[in-house]
Fold:
Amino acid sequence: MNPDQGNNLSERTDLPTFDEIYEAYAENILNYLYRLTGNKEDARDLTQDVFFKVLQNIDKFQYKSHIYTWIYQIATNHARNHLKRKRRYSCLSFVDTEVSDLMDQDRMEAWSPMLATAPSPQCTLEESERDAIVRSAIESLPFTYRVPLELRYYAGMSYNDIAKVLKISLSVVETRIHRAKKQLIKKLRPHIEDL
Structure:
């Protein structure tokens, strides 16, 4: 899913208002920061910080890139700094994800909510155990691999947009995502029967 899907901010030539920007991106940024931090309160605080910085600097935005790549860049920097500070005090938890999304490169898509049908208690328990294994594997990835993976498969960004957000080349983005997937598969291989 493209971050601009469903709104026309990327097509405009004039600067959108802060309220329009917040309405279009706040939920996506909150979810992104939650997946990076594993903590709802931290994600909320960081989201406020991100949009405060957007508000302070919106008049300096020059449309050299999409506005969402600029906002994700701010969010990534805030998350990186926050996690560096927090790393000293606790272990990090990470996102809930579908194993099939991690194991099957062709099916890696943005996370979508579970179907409306209620799962059986046995399915719920198995899914919870599976998610804990995957969460642990993702948490153990270096930040430099985890962030591009997040931006690609949870934020739905193109490789070009990820390169802009992280200020790295397209080939570095491709390499980091490839290495992240290889590391995840290696880490999850001993748990295949449990997944």
User: Anything to note?
Assistant: Residues 88-120 have pLDDT under 50 and may be disordered. Residues 67-87 form the longest helix (21 residues). Helices lie at 18-37, 40-57, 67-87, 99-103, 121-139, 143-153, 159-166, 170-188.
